[in-house]
Every structure is written in structure tokens, then in C-alpha cells.
Amino acid sequence: MGTVKIEKANIEDALILTGLKKNVFDTEKEKWLRGQDGIVDHNIQPPGYDSIEMTKYMIRELNYFKILYEGLLVGGLILTVVGKRHGRVDRIFVDPLYQGKGIGTMVMKRMETEYPEVMTWELETSSRQLNNHRFYEKMGYKKIFEAGDEFCYEKKMKEGACVGGESREITIQGDTLNDGDLSGLQVEYSNMQETDFYGIDGSYSTFSNSNLMGAGFNNCNLSESRFQNINFQKALIADLNLSQSEMGHVTLGGVRVHDTNLGGKNEPIRFERCDFHGSSFENCQLNHVEMSNCDVTGMKINGISVEELMEAYESVQGKRKG
Prior knowledge:
- The protein is α+β, with helices and mostly antiparallel strands.
- Helices cover 20% and strands 17% of the residues.
- It is globular.
- It starts with a strand and ends with a helix.
């Protein structure tokens, strides 16, 4: 077979990678969802898969590789590598014209070589994509979770050495671990239901592929934290200082934003490429707000049609010029 390489993608690659990704996932939809109108399968067509802005975000924030076959860009590999030993395959896609040449197999091997410290790789795929199941199982992955439309696979690499090259003895009195030094510790596949953490220095710790349903975070310093690929359904996010933070590629259906201000410096918010169809803003301070190049069809302010206001304004301006 031809030469296969993976190289870190850069922003200049975003346009072609988006086009390749759209072609791959649209082809998968046609193959696995043909005739099933109304079915949404986010493993077959991931949210934002056809968005160049999503591609740019992933290049900036994740481990995004372009796949080169004989020097030609034919696909992409998107990874999230967290902590010291865990990695997640977010996406792997190869142009349909180049599939069946063993490129995917070589890419997965290159990936493991690129991150020799990773001891566990995990990924999800659609329950419908039977060829994916066979491919991942051939690559040494085992199915660890199965839902209605999603399978989760995991591959265990060889076990790594213990932290710092030596073991540690941890003493627990009753049901309390107090003043213990757990820095650098790897905690895997442990039952920690209803565990309390208090007065903990967990700076730069990571939680991945974990069930934190119903968890509570109170009076915590989460500055510089990262939340990616998280299910926040029915979550309460309140009493937060999000000054100068960035939220991108977020689904906000049914979200309420209330009792919110722009902070002590009164720094303005920017909304770019957002769909606010049918939304409402009530009892809000909108002094000096600017909107440019926005579709205001059906938009009203205090019950008055913005379209009619614009038409009246343009009519007056036309008369003045005349």
C-alpha cells in the first residue's frame, strides 16, 4: 500500500478538512440512514460536522491530525488526550475514494505511536455502522457499553509503571481519608459513589469517560478549566463569574439566561453566527447594543415590527436624499 502519514493540522487546512468531513459523513448517512427520514444519529453526522468554524475550534483546542496518503490530504483524525494515560478518538474519517486501502489501520497505529504514554483509548460509534464495529474490534478494541444507537469501545494498552516508580501506602480511618498525598495518582474503574471531597487541591486534575451524574461543584475555583464533550442536560449553572470566557458550538435549546450582567468593566458580549430563531429578550438593558448583518424577519421590539421600522427609516432617508 502507499505511504500513510499523520501531521498536526493548522487553521489553513480547515476548509479542505471540513469539505472532506462533510463528504464522508454525508456518505455514511446515505449508507446507514437511507429511507429513515427524521432519524438523527449524532455518531453518523456529528453536530457541526459541516461547519468550518467547528473545524477551526477543533484544530485550536483538540489534537487534530490531517491524514496524508502519498502526500495527498485524504482525511482527518481528531483526538482528546487528557491526563497522563487516557485518550479518546473523537473522529476518524477518510475520503470514500480512498477507503479500503488500509489507511484507517495505519492511522490508528500511527496514533498509538504518537502517544506511547496513553494506556487506554476509547471511542464511540453508531450501533448502525457495522463496518466500524468490525474495524475497531480488528484493531483490538472491546465493546464496553451499548445503548440504543451507540456503542462505546475501549482498547487497553500494556499496563504502565506505577506513579513515580514506587508504590504508596494510603491510610483510611473509618470512612475518612485525611491529609493524604494523592498527587499524580491514577484512579481507574473505581466505585466512588456518594464520595465527598472537601478542601482538596485538585488543580489540573482530569476527569474523562466518567459518570458524574448528579455531581455538585460548590465554592470551587475552576479558572482555566476545560469542559469538552460533556452532557449537561438539566444541569444548573448559576452564580458564576464567566468574564472573558468563551462558549462555542453549544446547543442552547430551552436555556434561560437571567439576572446576568457584564461585570465590573462592563465588557460587551459578542454573538457570532448564532441562530436565535423564536427567542425573546424581556426587561433587558440594551443601551448601545449593535446588530449588523442580521436576519430580523419577524423580530419585534415592544410589539413593533423591526422590518416595518427599517422600511419607514429607509423611506424617510430616501425622501431626504431626494
